[in-house]
From TrEMBL:
Protein name as annotated: Flavin reductase-related oxidoreductase
Lineage: Archaea, Methanobacteriati, Methanobacteriota, Thermococci, Thermococcales
Originating organism: Thermococcus sibiricus (strain DSM 12597 / MM 739)
Residue span, Flavin reductase like domain: 7-150
SUPFAM superfamilies: FMN-binding split barrel (SSF50475)
InterPro entries: Flavin_Rdtase-like_dom, Flavoredoxin, Split_barrel_FMN-bd
Keywords assigned: Flavoprotein
Length: 174
């Protein structure tokens, strides 16, 4: 059966930064998840067709950046164009990360710095597992490190060209 993965949507959309210096690149990625708390592990599924795949394989590190709705135009370029030259069309600012040589994105709500600890092919994607070795975040979006949907417009992906954000209301369970 093909294509039914759309039934798991809406999903959050993230940015994956890879490479260093002039080679630094950014792509959009929905297929991202937390795998473990201790150690802190994050996984991302990346097709071998992506330029990003080559860069992560080469440098064994990547950054998962959390974009806001305000960054949608750049997210779309990151998700539809290939290779570092797309950066020239984008308004993102790459800044040094804390613990790895792959840069972070200044405008992002958060940047999670990862070193690759495993990579395994599943079908037409490679599942890269990264250990979180550093992070930075925007204090308004994450007061005390917790997301605040009233303060920031977190980005989610509904269908190919359709994106949404969360409403500003929080439903409490107790
Ligand atoms: C919202 C969105 C989410 C995406 N999610 C993924 C993903 O999880 N994995 C993947 O391999 N490609 C994903 N893509 C496709 C890549 O972002 C796209 O092929 C991009 O051009 C690759 O850039 P690169 O060749 O510079 O690495 C997504 C695209 C969009 C627009």
């Amino acid at each position: 059966m093909r294509g039914m993965y759309h039934l798991i949507y809406p999903m959050r959309t993230y940015l994956v930064v890879s490479g260093q210096g002039d080679e630094a690149n950014v792509m959009a990625a929905d297929w991202v998840t937390v795998l473990s708390h201790r150690p802190s592990l994050i996984g991302v599924a990346i097709s071998p067709k992506r330029y990003t795949h080559r860069l992560i394989s080469k440098y064994q590190e990547f950054v998962i950046s959390v974009p806001s709705l305000e960054m949608l135009e750049d997210v779309w370029i990151a998700g539809t164009k290939s290779g570092p030259s797309k950066l020239r069309e984008m308004n993102m600012t790459l800044v040094p990360s804390k613990k790895i040589n792959t840069p972070s994105i200044k405008e992002a709500l958060a940047n999670i710095e990862c070193r690759v600890v495993d990579a395994r092919d599943y079908g037409d994607h490679t599942w890269f597992v990264g250990e979180i070795v550093g992070y930075t975040y925007n204090e308004d979006a994450f007061p005390k490190g917790r997301p605040n949907v009233r303060k920031a417009n977190f980005l989610a992906h509904a269908a190919w060209t359709d994106f949404v954000t969360f409403e500003k209301r929080v439903y409490k369970t107790d």
